[in-house]
Amino acid sequence: MWTKESLHDLVTEKLKDYLFIVVSNREPYIHSYSSGQIICQVPASGLTVALDPVMRACGGTWIAHGSGDADREVVDIDNKVSVPPADPRYSLRRVWLTKEEEEGFYYGFSNEALWPLCHIVYTKPVFSESDWNSYKQVNEKYAESILQEVGDRKAFVFIQDYHLALLSRLLREKNPAIVTAQFWHIPWPNRDVFRRCPWEAEILDGLLGNDLLGFHIRYHCSNFMDTVDTGIEAKVDWERYEITRGGRTTAIRPFPISVDFENISEGAKRDEVLAEIERLKKRLGIGDEKIGIGLDRIDYTKGIPERFKAIDCLFEKYPQYKGKIVFVQAGVPSRTHVKAYQLLNKEIDELVEEINWKYSEGHWKPIIWLREHCPPVTLEALMRMADYCVVSSLHDGMNLVAKEFVASRSDEDGVLILSRFTGAARELADALLINPYAIDHFAEAIRNALEMPFEERQLRMNKMREVVRENNIYKWAADIISDLVKFEAGR
């Protein structure tokens, strides 16, 4: 099994002559003011939570947008700060964006154009020339920061996600010696969907500036290659899963991302977590009821309204569960500047109010809605206290909450209800797999979770834990680095 030590050894051996740089929009640690003091928080981001242990193991520099209101106060003259604060293992270099750049690059093109375009959940993408110009400008700003960091050294730059689709090409034009890999954390749609983007050719060309381009599953790799095959001039090698453009070849590979299994599993056993369970139950007024949970960023891809409708359907069909079960939904507000997210929040609030009014009895209500940023210990407690966890994404590249829930259950109990439209469903076949659009079947899956015998719960959970244990975040990083080294050696 891959560990942080074995990953460190791999990086030391294979990349010993290279500066190791990770690049993303979201930073792994945010410094902000609270009651006049500077505090450091971990953002609600599956990407940063997954990659932080990799960086702790490998060292190097993480370059990201400095979004906290106290971020500038803690960096040095090179805009860098050592993290994590309590036990520094790597450097965080911050890129500063203006409000206009953040509006056009992040809220605009990234999340009103690319995000809905790639997640086929019936939210229309918005394509704006000014947003596209901001997107290009910010990608150039990132390139400048990376080139300053690299200087004349050899470097391996690991780019994250859809915010930085142009970055590898910009780096290659200025410094062809830089080795780049990029991981696209969201789905890649079929070619007929992606051709709706007015700047399809520029994005495809940008991504093909990478030496290695990774997706969660082979289906997304195939979609990307098909898009390139019909969208721009390039040689697509379906046998090798490689694309050659302008004399340089990009390898296209599937790498299912994962979590730090051992750390999550051991951490969930802490006395602090057990104490938080008792505190939470008291705060939320939970007694002997069976508990379901949902842990999500509030996003229209996560299927939150669908799961609430399934709970409504469950009580309609099986009223005997009234007063005996409760569902705790923790949701972190996200992208509230975007209209689609404002409408989603309104829909969720109305559903919670309607369902709670419909079924509440005395002090009991079926849905407890926590619209707040929960600290890690609270999230750990929710996962440990749950009888079942619902991941009902309408479309998701992977969904790490599913794997985090499995990793947290060292008690070998609990049921995972998982959407078939997540990358995680390919690996976690012993979850109760659902179509979140089919509300009646969704409700039946919740009933199955509530009634499942302990022996079956234990068998399913043990199988899933073995999958996540073996295919952990260190294996994901090791596979990417190993493939890149092999690919570079074969040039």
Please explain how this structure is put together.
This protein folds into two domains: 4-258 and 473-489, Rossmann fold (3-Layer(aba) Sandwich); 261-470, Rossmann fold (3-Layer(aba) Sandwich), CATH 3.40.50. The chain starts with a helix and ends with a helix. It has 491 residues and is an alpha/beta fold. The model has no long low-confidence stretch (mean pLDDT 95). The protein has 18 helices and 18 strands.
Blueprint (SSEs and pairs):
Blueprint lengths: L3 H11 L4 E5 L6 E5 L2 E5 L4 H13 L2 E5 L5 H4 L5 E4 L6 E6 L3 H20 L10 H22 L4 E6 L6 H8 L4 E5 L7 H4 L5 H8 L4 E4 L2 H14 L3 E3 L4 E4 L2 E7 L6 H7 L3 H14 L5 E8 L6 H14 L7 E8 L6 H21 L7 E5 L4 H10 L2 E4 L8 H9 L6 E5 L12 E3 L4 H13 L2 H17 L2 H17 L2
Parallel strand pairs: 1-4, 1-7, 4-6, 7-8, 8-9, 9-12, 13-14, 13-16, 14-15, 16-17, 17-18
Antiparallel strand pairs: 2-3, 5-6, 10-11, 11-12
Helix pairs in contact: 1-2, 1-18, 4-5, 5-6, 10-15, 11-14, 12-13, 12-16
CATH homologous superfamily of the largest domain, by name?
Answer: Glycogen Phosphorylase B
Number of domains: 2
Beta-strand share of residues: 15-25%
**Strand numbers in spatial order across the main sheet:** 5-6-4-1-7-8-9-12-11-10
For the secondary structure, the number of strands is 18
Distance between the termini: 30 Å
Mean pLDDT: 95
Biggest sheet features? 10 strands, mixed
What's the total helix number? 18
- The CATH architecture designation of the largest domain is 3-Layer(aba) Sandwich
CATH class of the largest domain: Alpha Beta
Poorly predicted regions are none
What percentage of residues falls in helices of 4 or more residues?
40-55%
Which structural class best describes the helix and strand composition? alpha/beta
- Say what the CATH topology of the largest domain is: Rossmann fold
Q: What is the radius of gyration computed over CA atoms, rounded to a whole number of angstroms? A: 23 Å
